[in-house]
Amino acid sequence: MQEHFYTYKEKFDLEFGDHLEGFTLSYHTYGQLNKDKSNVIWVCHALTGNADVFDWWNGLFGDEALFNPNDHYIICVNVLGSCYGSTGPTSINPKTSKPYYYTFPNISIRDIVNSLNLLREDLGIKKINTLIGGSLGGQQALEWAVLYPTLMENLIICATNSKHSSWGIAFNETQRMAIESDPTWKEETDTAGQTGLKAARAIAMLSYRNYSTYEATQSENGNETTDSFKASTYQQYQGDKLTKRFNAYSYWTLSKTMDSHNLGRGRESVEKALQSIQAYTQVIGITSDVLFPVSEQRFITQHIPNVTYEEITSLYGHDGFLVETYKIAAAISAFFKQKNKKRVLI
């Protein structure tokens, strides 16, 4: 694995009317480009993810996995607005020589994709063999496939949607309300809103998992517990865990980014946008996902011309796209085999 930084020094116009005076993207690569640069696997990460895909998607990506550095050139980029090396709210604003904090502009999925595409051009990559992402990463992958329909040969999206739902927006707004309730939220410091972020993450866990997940993993062993329940300590643990690696500004920013995701914006319709995708596409849904229910993936499948659909059975709800890596790897392997069969028939 190699960590790299790409710096764009020109004015970068944003979809909602603001701009950045340039930006930096942190990204990781694994493996080597082959001679014709045809082995590129580009990964788009989820809301609190980072560029180290071998860490958070282990089992699907790794030295012995389906996507491995021996066969592929794998690239994953930390998105704008995040806090893992790319330009975000705690970065220095060149106009003020101080961190952006609350002045960091609203960014859209389309803005993120435009920044990724600038990096791709800088790397001289003219074709992406496979573009893959889940959740917020899937939103990026879909937007990229609409903006540049001939760029990627294969498109794989997991547990995502073509526009963010009212249900998802409500969850995100509730989390932002939790951050707002933190008395430190309006302070201009790197750690502002961390207690609120802890509560926000606990709220999010209820959408990432589901009733059955908690019953199976957090139930008490007996009948005598009256306090310090497993479910209670689990929520505290998950909140603490995130505050040690993320900040409230980036969480706020990227949750807003997710809310504004809509493939139909500025286009004829969501359906028409999906119909413009030319990549051979696999859509994967998680049966127990309550945040991005399978109805959203089925809708996507109905409108992409060259597509297959797979549902993964999982106890883990939305997080199933991160947990069930071996099931997903098997589904993707079958997807590629089916594609090769079609080629033989043609």
How much is the radius of gyration in Å?
Answer: 20 Å
- Rough outline: globular
Overall tally of domains:
2
Q: Strand order across the biggest sheet?
A: 1-4-6-5-9-10-11-12
CATH topology of the largest domain: Rossmann fold
Q: Which spans have pLDDT < 50 for at least 5 consecutive residues?
A: none
Largest sheet: 8 strands, mixed
The total of beta strands comes to 12
Give the overall pLDDT as a whole number.
96
Question: SSE order, as H and E?
Answer: EEEEEHEEEHEHEHHHHHHEHEHH
Classified by CATH, the class of the largest domain is Alpha Beta
Name the CATH architecture of the largest domain: 3-Layer(aba) Sandwich
**Beta content:** 15-25%
> Helix/strand-derived class?
alpha/beta
CA(first)-CA(last) distance:
38 Å
The helicity comes to 25-40%
The tally of helices reads 12
Q: What is the CATH homology-level superfamily of the largest domain?
A: Alpha/Beta hydrolase fold, catalytic domain
Organism: Flammeovirga pacifica
Domain AB hydrolase-1: 40-324
Subunit structure: Homodimer.
EC number: 2.3.1.31
Notes on the structure:
This protein is an alpha/beta fold and 346 residues long. It folds into two domains: 2-164 and 261-345, Alpha/Beta hydrolase fold, catalytic domain (Rossmann fold), CATH 3.40.50; 168-257, Rna Polymerase Sigma Factor, Chain: A (Orthogonal Bundle). Helices cover 39% and strands 17% of the residues. The protein contains twelve helices and twelve strands. It has helices at 53-56, 109-123, 136-147, 166-180, 194-208, 211-217, 230-243, 248-259, 270-275, 294-303, 320-323, 325-345, and strands at 2-8, 12-13, 19-20, 23-30, 40-44, 73-77, 92-93, 98-99, 128-134, 152-158, 280-286, 307-312. Strands 1-4-6-5-9-10-11-12 form an eight-stranded mixed β-sheet, with helices on both faces. Strand 2 and strand 3 (19-20) form a beta hairpin.
